[in-house]
Amino acid sequence: MPTGRSGVLSTIGNHLAAKAAPYLPPWIGAAALPPVAGWGVNEMWGDSALSAGLASAGMGAGGVLLSAVTWAVAGGTNKFRRFRRVQATASVAAGMGWLTCSVSAGPFGHPMTDLWLLGGGLFAASWNVRQIMRDAHDETEETETTGLGKLAEAIGLEKVQVKNARGNGKGMVSADVVVPPGKTMEDVQSAAPKLAAALHVPPSAVTVDRNPDNAARGTFSARVADLLKDGVPFRPPAELGLLPTEPIPVGLYADGEVWSINPFLAEILQHLLVMGVTGSGKSEFARTVLAHLMTRRKLSVWLIDLSKGEQTVGHMAEGLDWFVDKNRGGQREAKALLRCLPEVIAARGTELANEGLDQWTPDSKLNAMVVWIEEAADVADFEVLDKIARAARSVGIWLVVSLQRASWKNVSTDVRANLQAAACFGVDDAADAGFCLPDRVTESGAIPDWGADRPGYAYATGMNIPAKRWTTEVRGSLTKTVKEQIREMVLAAAAVRDPLDDVSARAAGLAYERRTHHGTNRTNAPDTATAPALLHAVPAPAPEWNDREDDDIDAVDPAVEEAAAMELQDAYDDVMSHIPADPEPDADYARLRLEDDVPDADPDTDLTFEQTARPSTEEARATLYGQIDAWAAQDRLTFEPGDLIPATVAAGRSRPWLQGELKKLTEQGVLQRDGQGEYTIVRPIAVAA
Ligand SMILES: Nc1ncnc2c1ncn2[C@@H]1O[C@H](COP(=O)(O)OP(=O)(O)OP(=O)(O)O)[C@@H](O)[C@H]1O
Asked: Is 335 annotated as a binding residue?
């Protein structure tokens, strides 16, 4: 090992020599080649004018040819290679020119030596510069001339540049795409099916995303292997009692990343449209999302599923604050739930304003709410849904609408516009996907037109999912293998779950108070310590309160119900048969309506009527309110104004009075009127009276 000053100097010298070595060849070439070659040609042909002239002509022609060959072989499609071609051709042309002159002039002497020194120095330095730039990786933005690039050429996208092709080691290949002037990214998108065919993958496996900031650029992605084909296991929550604003893991992306959604943390709460044909995996998705939500505090879930509610979420129903299916309130209660929502939205809006919040956050005393409507086309008038969707967003009510059949074709564009997030499972027709997913997603080729052949696979947008992930295929978790564990988890979570806040509960009124299904939460939790143990020990595991509810439901035998209905109809027909249809069709009063004044008695008649005292206003109201109260007591929470005509007559009043009373009660929040003129009883009337 060298020591002392000379040692240090020699180390530095060695280091510099090592660094400079790669850059020396151009200098050595420029220094050695010209004098040797120039001396050689001058010695051979420089003696006589004839041989020198002939040799110069031959070398000139050879120089042109060599330059042309250099130009041809040094082709390239990126700017570095184009520059390299010019540099190489210019070097060859200059070298050959100098050599041609040295045939007669010789290499040594003016101006040949000057040209050699200047030209050689420039040549060597320019190649050094090029070498330095290449070492600094400025040429890494390579155009793909093999693989994907060749593929693009093969399908007619020859001018389109495919750069930076990369695989993620998890079955996904992606590359940057740049279109030349005259072409657009739409041209590349429309060629995506050809790319898929060339790659031997399904059409939906190839997507071409546009770059929102640059119309000439995009990203090409291809799923060349399906890592999710063996299913995605359910990922339980990290702990019970998380806030609604925590992410919900619902599956995996095709590249193995976790697919999670976070609707309550998104900048605006985007209502969700879940779509797909029967068997495409919507129910599994619903169970996954709900299982997570049912373990969270400050969150209440209301769910309507009139088609197969029990089958889909029956095992975890305790986690639902209000659950309407065909055995739990049916169509009537579903309507009541939807009818009370405007009132709930209004009350929550006022409360949030009082709290100084523009929109719901966990700081509010209100719970976040989820209103999940399965097979929405059968449950709700879409105009009603539209109104709810528009207003619910800012008050922390997340609306999820699931459409199972081709019913989405009936949904108006207004409603669709208000369902800004999407989870689109398999559809039969590619055009159907366009109804659910944003245009930019379907245009990229992300179209789940695999029907029910690939259950659980989908594309999802909104809900705080980064936009660049919208075109990546996802697969939802499979919950049916862990049904029991999910049930235990939901039961255990009751201890940490908050009941619905008073503001929303009060606004939801009687319909909520008298709901058929009550979920469990910390104020009415089952014994969570023993519940899971109980689950293993007892084959029918529901807690006692739930058994009672189920017993009630089971007690309603459809045959008995039908017999009762027939009996009622018979009795009705019997009574009606004793009443003459229209005893005096030509009488003066025959065309009178309820709101008309009673005509003066016929002066010729001997008939006199005993004038009964007209009930006082209090008595009239008592009669009317009594009727409404009686209905509420019987759980009949909706009526039409016509249903109150007998009570109005008994109260000695006419229709304008009835209308005035109904208006007053509506203003007091006792009743709620819907677009069709039907009324819902929101609170017991005695309070208002
Ligand atoms: N994520 C998934 N992974 C694996 N298999 C799944 C997944 N989702 C659904 N499946 C399979 O597909 C079947 C149908 O799924 P699911 O019941 O969720 O469909 P659906 O869209 O709700 O149908 P329907 O409209 O009839 O209710 C399931 O029983 C399951 O076998």
From this structure: no
Strand partners, 325: 305
- Nearest residue (by CA) to ligand 1, atom 22, is 283
Rounded-to-integer distance, Cα 310 and Cα 306, Å = 9
| pTM of the predicted protein model | 0.62
Ligand 1 atom index nearest CA of 276: 21
**Residue ranges of the chain that CATH labels 3.30.980.40:** 148-223
- Fill in the amino acid letter for 178: V
CATH 3.30.980.40 fits 148-223, yes or no: yes
* DSSP 8-state code for residue 233: B
Nearest CA to ligand 1 atom 15: 281
Is 280 annotated in a binding site? The answer is yes
User: Atom 25 (ligand 1): residue with closest C-alpha?
Assistant: 278
- CATH fold, domain 248-525, is Rossmann fold (3.40.50)
Rg (C-alpha) for the chain, rounded Å, is 42
Q: Determine the pLDDT at residue 461.
A: 95
For the domain covering 617-688, report its CATH number.
1.10.10.10
- Provide block-wise average pLDDT over 10 residues at a time, the chain (689 residues): 60 75 82 83 78 79 81 66 78 83 78 84 82 59 54 64 75 82 82 80 82 87 82 92 95 91 92 92 95 96 91 93 91 89 94 94 95 84 82 93 68 80 92 87 89 93 92 93 92 92 93 90 68 37 32 44 53 53 54 55 55 80 90 85 87 88 89 82 69
CB-based contact 486:295 (threshold 8 Å): no
Antiparallel, parallel or unpaired: β 368-374 and 397-403: parallel
Within 6 Å (CB) of ligand 1, which residues are found?
A: 231, 276, 278-284, 404, 455-456, 475-476, 478, 480
Please give the pLDDT value at position 54: 80
Say how far apart CA 205 and CA 226 lie, in whole Å.
9
Distance 456 CA to ligand 1 centre (A): 6
Numbered ranges of CATH 1.10.10.10 in the chain: 617-688
Q: Is 276 annotated as a binding residue?
A: yes
- HSE at residue 138, side-chain half, CA atoms within 13 A, is 10
281 annotated as belonging to a binding site for a ligand: yes
Taking the centre of ligand 1 as the mean of its atom positions, its distance from the CA of residue 277, in whole angstroms, is 10
Instruction: State residue 172's pLDDT score.
Output: 78
What pLDDT score was predicted for residue 417? 83
Q: Count other Cβ atoms within 10 Å, centred on residue 26.
A: 19
Centroid of ligand 1 to alpha carbon of 452 (angstroms): 8
* Rounded Cα–Cα distance for residues 212 and 215 (Å): 7
Residues in the chain: 689
